[in-house]
Amino acid sequence: MKRLQKCCCCASTRTGTIITSILGIILSIVTIIVVWVVDKHLIRYSTFFFDEDFDKKLTYYDIPRIILTVNLCFTILICALLMIAVHKRRSWLMLPWVVLGIVLAIGLLITVLHTSITYYLDGQDHAIIATIILIGGLFYLCLYLYLWVVVFSHYLDVRDEEERGRYRKAPYRR
């Protein structure tokens, strides 16, 4: 894979990595707030493994909200770890975000496709909503993958610097 040298054609991959981690923290906090502020009857959770009554019990006890909140708290933790890694120039601290990022991208693709297909197959006229979800979700996925490539490029740069050692670096990088 070819490494990126710049983020958005003007900033370094280091700056892009910091911006990505800040965006991850902000979006996680906003999502936690929305999940707990929105009335639970407006959001429908379904497991697809159990019957509808079990899904209603899970929703009644706020189990999906709690699981989502715990996941988002871990996302905040990993994004904070990414900011520390950029500041200290440690590649092994960036690795959890890199791994989580690609797993989340796969999950996002599956979620967007599943949601849009479900709306398309619904008996009512939800084709416009399904199309908006599909196009918006794929656009968001492309943006997310670009930011992941920025972070991964910076991770590779830092890892290469660590492997070279302090005295083998170029004089302007010491």
Automatic annotation (TrEMBL):
Species annotation: Mythimna separata (Oriental armyworm)
Keywords, alphabetical: Membrane, Transmembrane, Transmembrane helix
A Pfam match: DUF4728
Transmembrane segments: 21-43, 63-85, 97-121, 127-156
Domain of life: Eukaryota
Annotated protein name in UniProt: Uncharacterized protein
Matching InterPro entries: DUF4728, MARVEL_domain_protein_3
